[in-house]
Structures are given as structure tokens and as C-alpha cells.
Design a protein that fits this description.
By secondary structure, the protein is an alpha+beta fold. The chain is built from one helix and eight strands, in the order αββββββββ. Strands 1, 2, 3, 6 and 7 form a five-stranded antiparallel β-sheet that branches. It has a three-stranded antiparallel β-sheet with strand order 5-4-8, with no helix packed on it. The longest helix is centred in the first third of the chain and has 24 residues, at 2-25. The chain is elongated.
Length: 130
């Protein structure tokens, strides 16, 4: 009887561990920034143009009002750094991602793999309409 209880406890322990790890794998987005209830995340896209790596950006507006955004994404390899400015507007509680929303970038690093991704000069603000 005690052996069955031990086996059951081990099984439950393994179930909870694997369940927690599998839930973490469901969200492939890597968060870069959270500011003013807005989140910027990315997914690394290997060989996006069959030669260079790419980055897919996701922007989430958790506010109950429209926001404007502007930020610079940085992609680095050993000695080379590329930057791109992203800007636009999101309505209340909106999420945007992908090339249809100009949130896809191939930094063209001559086929070398991106070593670091960063963000700088970010601004999220409520627009003032006339």
C-alpha cells in the first residue's frame, strides 16, 4: 500500500513538472519591454529569406485607449549592429504582429546569425486628437 502511494506521489510530481514546462513552451514570444501597459516581444526567424535571420515583432496595447508607439530594435553580431525604427498606432486592447503590419525585419547581416536583440528609444503615449 505504501509503495502504491509513493508511486502515485511520484507520478503526480512528474505530471505537475511536465505540465508546467509544457505550458511555458506554448508561448514562443520573448519579451523585450513592458512600459505604460504596452508590451513589445519578438520571435527569432531563422533563415527568413533563405540566407539571413529575421525578427517578427509583436506589440500589445493593454490600455483601454488608443496609443501611439515608437521604438528602435537593434540586432547585433560580433562587430556589426543594425537598427530599425518601428512606429504606429494601436487601438484599445489591440495586438499587432507580422509583416502585414510592418512588424517583420530582416537585418541583412551577410548570413551571420543574430547574436543579440535589443530595444531602445521607446515611447508609448496617448495621442492628443483635435
Amino acid at each position: 500500500m505504501i509503495n502504491k502511494i509513493k508511486i502515485s506521489l511520484v507520478f503526480l510530481f512528474i505530471f505537475f513538472i511536465t505540465n508546467n514546462f509544457s505550458q511555458k513552451k506554448l508561448d514562443p514570444w520573448i519579451k523585450l519591454l513592458k512600459d505604460n501597459n504596452c508590451i513589445v516581444s519578438f520571435i527569432f526567424y531563422s533563415k527568413a529569406d533563405n540566407y539571413n535571420n529575421g525578427i517578427v515583432i509583436k506589440i500589445e496595447n493593454k490600455n483601454k485607449f488608443t496609443i501611439r508607439y515608437r521604438f528602435t530594435i537593434i540586432a547585433k553580431i560580433e562587430t556589426v549592429e543594425k537598427e530599425k525604427i518601428f512606429k504606429g498606432e494601436l487601438t484599445a486592447v489591440e495586438i499587432r504582429t507580422g509583416s502585414n503590419n510592418n512588424l517583420f525585419w530582416i537585418p541583412e547581416l551577410k548570413g551571420k546569425s543574430i547574436a543579440e536583440i535589443g530595444i531602445k528609444k521607446w515611447k508609448f503615449y496617448k495621442p492628443k486628437y483635435k
